[in-house]
Amino acid sequence: MNPDHSHFSIGINLSPEDHDPTVLFSGEGKPIHGHKIGPSVHDFFLIHTVLDGEGLFQTGGLSQVCRAGDTFVIFPGSLFSYQADRTTPWHYVWIGLQGEATAKLFSEIGITRDKPLLHMEDITEICAVYERVRKSFQQSAYPRLESLEASGWMRLLFHHFGIANRSILPAYPQQLPEVIDRQIDQAIRWITLQFHQHISIVQMASTLGYHRAHLSKAFKQKTGLSPKQYLMKVRMDKAKELLGGTLTIDQISSSVGFNDALYFSKQFHKWSGKSPSDYRNLLRS
Fold first, then answer.
1. Which SMART domains match (predicted)?
2. Where are the chain's structural domains?
3. CA distances from 278 to 240, 261, 275 (A)
4. Is the pLDDT of residue 118 over 60?
5. pTM
6. How far is CA 87 from CA 29, 34, 35, 92, in A?
7. Fewer CB within 10 Å, N or C, the chain?
8. pLDDT digits (tens, 9 = 90+) for 172-192
């Protein structure tokens, strides 16, 4: 038992990443009356969410009494202190984070050095998420797997924070031309990721909320190609790349979404002016 807390538990990451947002540790505690930390600085990010009671958080020019539902974030290099109330000391959970992209992730949900606080009316769900983060660290023989699990739960926690901060976050613009552009971008991404599968332009249009003719017109205005032509281009470009390797023509055909190698060869010749074999020989010459 930590002598400064009536309850204290913590999980520590034995295999943290340096670059992506990653959880260093996570804990839960009930400090004793008047318990204080700081003034201090950390070289990592530290999130606290208050479950019960109250205490005082201070950083920069900010001094804020925090109660149940309040979350405060300490940024690396920022001078801070926080102290449990002498009458009703707080009960809180916390997570330490590091990673080059962490500050950007905080900014995207409306949390910055100047605005390190947020409030949630219902903390039932995030209490469960904090617990899952903490219990990810079992000090097993697979610390990397523990770190991956904790990072997944951490991102869900950020989602909840973002929902709580929706009123101050910029919404996606709803002007029709920009909405159409975004849907065409989704169609392009769909084709780029799924070109090796059977793709129905009708189904894709329906999923994006368009009639096929409407999608084809908007798609061609943006890309210069119809969805079917764009799909063929993606497949042929990938086929050219694979022909530089060791896969057979049959294997390449299947890899780019053709069940019939002969049909693939005809389409490739129509697209490039050469058969797959001739194109491969050209690459090797």
1. HTH_ARAC
2. 5-168, 176-284
3. 11, 15, 5
4. yes
5. 0.68
6. 17, 8, 11, 16
7. C
8. 555 545 667 777 888 888 888
| CA quadruple 143, 44, 80, 109: dihedral, nearest 10 | -100
Note whether 82 and 48 are within 8 A (CB): yes
What is the tens place of the pLDDT at every residue in 15-51?
666 667 889 999 999 999 999 999 999 989 999 999 9
Pick the CATH number of 5-168 from 3.40.50.150, 2.60.120.280, 3.40.225.10, 3.40.50.300: 2.60.120.280
Cβ burial, residue 234 (10 Å; 0-12/13-18/19+): buried
- pLDDT, averaged across the chain: 88
Burial class (CB in 10 A: 0-12, 13-18, 19+), 129: buried
Structure tokens at 137: 């660290």
